[in-house]
Amino acid sequence: MLIGPGVRHRLAEQVARTGARRAVVVSARPAGWTPDPGVPHLVLSAEDGEAGKTLSVVERYCRRFAQFGLSRTDVVVAVGGGSTTDTAGLAAALYHRGVPVIHLPTTLLAQVDASVGGKTGANLPEGKNLVGAYWQPRAVLCDTDYLATLSAAELRSGYGEIARCHFIGAGDLRGRSHTEQIAASVRRKAELVSADERESSGRRHLLNYGHTLGHALEVGTGFTLRHGEAVAIGTVFAGRLAGHLGRITPERVAEHAEVVAHYGLSGRLPSGVDPAALLALMRRDKKATTGLTFVLDGPRGARRSPTYPSPRSPPCWPRCRAPSPRAEV
């Protein structure tokens, strides 16, 4: 894992370490921002965004791998946001039953979360990330130069994941530099993934803090809410639910809203969202078994909650009108 300005230029070094003789570079960035892997290669264009995170895109990548003659000793390089690293990573996991992959995440969201941990995935109309595989990258190069090219909205989406990290043991990252925020977020994720790579023991579930409602909001709004924006709302809701269940104090509940607001994010449900539809989507979440499952804060820190079986809305459901950049739920 390399973090800092200009680390994309070390791609050829990382490719050489895999022993690959050829590469396919799946890139959502312009040519000037897509580094040379140092071996004969094919560049496939990708389009960042959840709309392109489909199985048809994964199939297209795999077919181009085959046409190029990529072998299982070669390498796939993903250059882009989380949707690009997810789909290219899934294609790498499936093609020849697994070829090495290297990620160059180019958004703050991807650098703090999506590109690390070994999860790959694609969406279905029925829900987010319902198809995927665990496939660890050989290297991740987080070049902070890419962040200067991002819109304010794209940066806010990354801040949503950083805000969530506040409540899963990464510490208070407010006021820290991007490099420090990325390093702390990745360090905490690495600790959890190394202890529970495939979510078998429950430790890795902490990374889903705020995501049960967050994923439902993404799908329920047709992905007009960015991932980090949706996770921010889910994080505030997780605080409210934990407070309602007596797991945390009112002050800790308020801290959830304060941290999210610090990063310029809303903690309120957008207008026009049907709570019943969100509940149905949450029950399709990949963590759900017999009901709704949340990761909630508590006296010993965040833990996976017992199943919430009621078909009704949780009593602390945030019923708000329109989102406001700094409003509490």
Automatic annotation (TrEMBL):
GO terms for molecular function: 3-dehydroquinate synthase activity. Residues 175-288 form the 3-dehydroquinate synthase C-terminal domain. InterPro entries: Dehydroquinate_synthase, DHQS/DOIS_N, DHQS_C. This is TecR protein. It comes from the Bacteria. One of its GO terms (biological process) is amino acid biosynthetic process. Its cofactor is NAD(+). Residues 308-317 have a biased composition (Pro residues). Residues 318-329 have a biased composition (Low complexity). Residues 45-156 form the 3-dehydroquinate synthase N-terminal domain. Pfam families: DHQ_synthase, DHQS_C. It comes from Actinoplanes teichomyceticus. Keywords: Amino-acid biosynthesis, Aromatic amino acid biosynthesis, Lyase, NAD. Residues 296-329 are annotated as: Disordered.
